[in-house]
Design a protein that fits this description.
single chain, alpha/beta, six-stranded antiparallel barrel, globular
Length: 373
């Protein structure tokens, strides 16, 4: 093992040889390496679709270097206008919409209508956009591993309806029409967030990733509360679809002209937290191991806005101010389980520096790295 490894260092015909790992009697460690390497290679053969592109709400970090990403991390990035979805939504068969509504009702989803923001007519428009996206994914074909929809202002304000059913139901393996492929979905053209989601999903065996805005950072926990929706998979830990549905509440969103947010509270459990960021043109991965905690009345009192959104409370046990300083985006990504080692192997092979965000010492090293780039 040592002689072969030394020879690889000497010749280094490629990056895998240069960063090879040596496993001496540790089968479980080698399996984690296999998962990490295969997750990256699977990612490099897939493609993303961004409806509306990126750079939402003038957030500079959403702009990116697509050719660079395609050179080492993803096979292709397709950008389409949101009008592709709007035009297709207008042609959706009404019977498909009614069947979807009945599916929601049979699963005991709570539909809390009001007089303007979330009405039965608005619900139908949101379902139309969902089916338009689902059909477009099938039409494109190929190995699509993730999609993004840019809400503001084109869909949420100008078209007049929030597309929240896309990030809620596309990343789930079943809907009113039966089983389907679950595909990671994010908002705002957040390509680095989407890439993080895809990598975690490739590692954990195909389970879609959770994502959302960091809306509160306290001393005991921080909140992930996404604007309108995230994968419904996290409404119920390891549950069948109908158990998931009964934990959902759709009611008026706080954003856009009209639309319902698909709300739920994520159950407790160990979670891997991750986020791909870019500083001065260089990519870094922030990773950590946290614990999702039950959302109590005290925690829900911290929902300063977006009370109808999906919420996840995570404990990282790090300094509050350091954590605020360290985050390089509004969105973070998470999945149940400990996949830190697999993420390390993926990042090492891809040439991405990684830093732990569940340690004050590592947070300080990350901040020093940023300051001296």
């Amino acid at each position: 093992i040592t002689a072969g490894g030394a020879s690889l260092w000497e010749t280094s015909p490629n990056r895998p040889a240069q960063v090879h790992e040596r496993f001496y009697g540790d089968r479980q460690a080698s399996l984690k390496w296999i998962k990490g390497v295969c997750a990256l290679e699977k990612m490099k053969s897939s493609k993303l679709v961004l409806w509306g592109g990126s750079y939402a709400l003038r957030m500079e970090y959403l702009q990116d270097d697509y050719p660079k990403l395609k050179s080492f991390l993803i096979n292709d990035i397709m950008v389409e206008d949101q009008y592709v979805l709007i035009k297709a939504a207008e042609k959706i068969n009404p019977e498909r919409i009614e069947k979807f509504i009945n599916w929601l009702k049979s699963g005991n989803v709570k539909l809390n209508y009001d007089k303007s923001m979330f009405t039965p007519e608005v619900l139908k428009k949101q379902i139309e956009l969902y089916f338009a996206a689902k059909d477009r994914i099938a039409e494109i074909g190929g190995n699509i591993s993730g999609v993004s929809v840019k809400c503001f202002p084109e869909l949420a304000d100008i078209y007049g309806t929030d597309p929240c059913f896309l990030p809620a139901f596309i990343p789930h393996n079943q809907d009113s029409e039966g089983p389907k492929k679950a595909i990671n979905t994010i908002c705002e053209g957040d390509i680095k967030g989407l890439l993080t989601m895809v990598l975690l999903t490739n590692i954990n065996g195909g389970i879609p990733s959770l994502f959302g805005d960091v809306t509160y950072i306290g001393k005991e926990y921080f909140l992930i509360s996404n604007c309108g929706a995230s994968s419904i998979h996290y409404a119920c830990k390891s549950c069948a679809t109908y158990d998931i549905l009964r934990n959902l509440t759709v009611e008026a969103n706080f954003e856009g002209a009209t639309g319902g947010a698909v709300g739920y509270s994520t159950p407790g459990g160990q979670m891997t937290i991750a986020r791909l960021v870019r500083v001065k043109g260089r990519y870094f991965m922030l990773i950590g191991l946290g614990d999702a905690v039950e959302i109590t009345k005290d925690i829900s009192s911290k929902f300063y806005f977006g009370s109808t959104w999906p919420h996840t409370a995570v404990r990282l046990n790090v300094d509050q101010q350091l954590f605020v300083q360290a985050l390089g985006a509004n969105h973070v990504v998470a999945t149940y389980g400990n996949y830190l080692k697999e993420m390390v192997y993926s990042c090492t092979l891809a040439g991405i520096e990684y830093f732990r965000i569940d340690s004050n010492e590592s947070l300080e090293r990350w901040l020093e790295r940023v300051r001296y780039l």
